[in-house]
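Progress narrative, Year 2. Work on FdtA/QdtA family cupin domain-containing protein from Thiothrix lacustris advanced from sequence curation to structure prediction during this period.
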Amino acid sequence: MDINLCKIIDFPKITDPRGNLTFIEGHNHIPFDIQRVYYLYDVPGGAERGGHAHKALHQLIIAMSGSFDVILDDGKNKKRIHLNRSYHGLYVCPMMWRELDNFSSGSVCMVLASNKYDEDDYYRDYAEFIQAVSTK
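Result:
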């Protein structure tokens, strides 16, 4: 996969003096149906998350509160993206190594995923991932 397939998606933002509202619809705002939602929180200062790639899973990563960085790696190119708005999401395609770091205090990272959890979908070893992308 090409790192340029991963991109920031802007979501609708309905502004209201009582509080703003943003919504996300699968196959409308994002290119997949949402099968799973999970979130990371209380990440200690200096900690990193991620450190893996998925064979088939599509994801959307959102900073619901606070901020953090996502480092993407397609085996040839790397890109660091700072997320800090709850109405923006980072689409991450399959076969993309990702790491998350630089979490601000109180940050919450929400992930929308195209499939339910499947351990067989993971590359957890970077060398194995590089070998897989170099043979495609």
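The CA atoms of residues 8 and 38 lie 19 Å apart. Residues 3-134 form a domain with the Jelly Rolls fold (CATH 2.60.120.10).
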